[in-house]
Amino acid sequence: PKGVINDWRKFKLESEDRDSLSLSKKEILRQMSSPHRSFSKDEKDTRERFCRKMSMQEYELIHDEQEDESCLQKYRKRCMQDMHQKLSFGPKYGYLCELQNGEQFLEAIEKERKTTTVIVHIYEDGIKGCDALNNSLTCLAATYATVKFCKIKASNTGAGDRFSNEVLPTLLVYKGGELLSNFISISEQFNEDFFAVDVESFLNEYGLLPERELPALGNGNMDEQDVE
User: Fold this and answer.
1) Which residues contact 40 (CB under 8 A, 6 or more apart)?
2) CA proximity to 131, closest of 79, 192, 73, 214
3) Per the count of CB atoms within 10 A, which of 28, 33, 59, 113 is most buried?
4) 228: pLDDT confidence band, cut at 50, 70 and 90?
């Protein structure tokens, strides 16, 4: 409808920074916002010159509106990402860390934030269940990025006599430097073939995992309802 188009043209004219517009563009915007105005002879001559460019200028203005909408959506996504980062306290890990010796084992436990949960898998090559648990923890580390997942061979802990093959795989859970849980021969809690979802369910039963991370926001286009 002409009335809606004219209102939009007036709004566009008022919202534009007048200092940043060229004189020709200002004149075109004025003419577009007042299409039924009567003109003097000189004004008619000027109008005829501008009319040749008007369709292109209208296209540019409408194109600018579309770009503004795209920028607005990107801005909204940026705000949501910033808010999500602020709500996700603490450092991020996202992988299963291999500890090489007892000193690194102690540092991983004692030098983390008091709010960080540290889960350590004590294992040895060739022990039943150790490989499956390492694979499961690798998956969980990607899902629970605020939890620090580590693994270390029993022979590298400096306390190998305390971690004999009979108690492996062992899972230790720390927070604030304190031992929260100690699961020896943890693979006995699962079926012979177990996966990340089984380990996740087990740890959740003891309240040892936080809420799942929100999915990362992509770079693609988002519908309005996605950001409201």
Assistant:
1) none
2) 192
3) 28
4) very low
Per-residue pLDDT for 130 more than 50?
Answer: yes
Neighbours of 216 (CB within 10 A): 8
pLDDT tens per residue across span 186-221:
999 999 999 999 999 999 999 999 987 655 444 444
Separation of alpha carbons 109 and 101, rounded Å: 13
DSSP 92: -
Omega within 30 of 0 (cis) for the link into 210? no
What's the burial of 80, exposed, middle or buried (CB within 10 Å: 0-12/13-18/19+)?
middle
Instruction: Name beta bridge partners: 118.
Output: 148, 174
Q: How many residues does the chain have?
A: 228
Question: Residue type at 101?
Answer: N
DSSP assignment, residue 214? P
The DSSP code sequence of 48-109 is HHHHHHHHHHHHHHHHHHHHHHHHHHHHHHHHHHHHHHHHS-S----SEEEP-SHHHHHHHH
Alpha-carbon distance values, 51 to 2, 13, 71, 168, 192 (Å): 18, 18, 30, 84, 80
> Dihedral of CA 73/79/80/81: which sign?
positive
The CB density around residue 192, as the number of other CB atoms within 10 Å, is 8
Q: d(Cα 129, Cα 135) in Å, to the nearest integer? A: 10
Q: Which residue has the tokens 């294992």?
A: 123
Decide: 196 and 121 in contact? Cβ < 8 Å: no
The β-bridge relationship of strands 96-98 and 178-183 is: unpaired
pTM of the model: 0.57
The tokens for 108 are 């991983």
